[in-house]
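ok trying this again, last paste got cut off
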Amino acid sequence: MNTNYTDKLFFGDVDINSLISVPKPFEHSLSNNKFNQNDSRIVDSILDLYVHPGLDYRYGNKKTISEKVLEILTNKNIGGDFVDLGSKKRKEILKRINNFINSEQPIEMRLLSVPFKCPNPLKVRGSLPDLGEYFSILRLLEINLNIKKVYSPGVRFNVVAESLAFCDIFEITRNEAITYRNSFIEMVKDLKGEKVIKIVDLMESLNKVHNFKTTKHILENKLIGSNLLDDLLPAIVMSVNTRNYSMEDLVLIFDRNKQIYNLPESIRKARKEIFERSLKATIKYIAFHKARELLSTSEKCFPKMIPCSVVPKSGSITILPINRNLLPHHGVGVLKSNGSVETKYEVDLLRSNCRAIYQKDKLNVIGYEEL
């Protein structure tokens, strides 16, 4: 790979692999400087908002309990179009589900998630979970309620928190990562979901895997200059910490319609600086995942559980936290009139017919609401 800055490498295309969620384009041109002046709304608690995932499933009467459970988990309302496990993986997952059913225990699922809010202010200016994360918890609880209709013990989602694993890569402080994770746990408690959703720390688990850190370091050295970086780099560019730049500068930096030679010197330097940090972060990010894959850490740390993923991934059940939109930590939750929630970039919401929602006595925005 050419490690020198180019506009093509900085912005890239959106067709990347399943290591990270695909970066969505901005809805409104960054060249548009018009922002809305809508009033805000204040609520006593996020629990006061009418939010409902609206999940309800149907299945054939002749199927076994395990087949009914799997049919619910692979429903398009949960995983979109990414539901084809393949016959071999399907049989393996059915066998695991049956093992839990035979022991009359909740079906244990593992799901890698809960990092921290993306530190790019164009995506999201806050650092705490909001309506997006709230909705994603409701979806997991709703999935469990549907499964309990056919198997009374239901499921338990072991949500493997990425916060401390990735905070160094994306230049987030440990304190911010821990605060985000703990706030997510508080949301689960507020919704009385502790028996269904269990938060476990990824790094605590990986520290018990022999040679993980050594393997990751070897892979980082091998990845320098690799073409493997090309596809993932634009997504990382959008995700590294750019809070040290003003919103006005960020609009110019990330406006893909403005080529670098047409920009002020300060913005050209900023693009190159962000690019260089993103390149290092991409190497670390890929090496981290490749090391996990080579050492089969998921099976070593969480054996016998049903593999799930918030992005389409071969051999895993896809559970999209918020339908087909951005992952909750990549934006801000937007409440729609029917009670559903989407995630959108905050810079787009500031230019849309939406109003901010605040929680009483707190300064942070907990979401937006369509008008």
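PB: full thing came through this time. Residues 14-18 have pLDDT under 50 and may be disordered.
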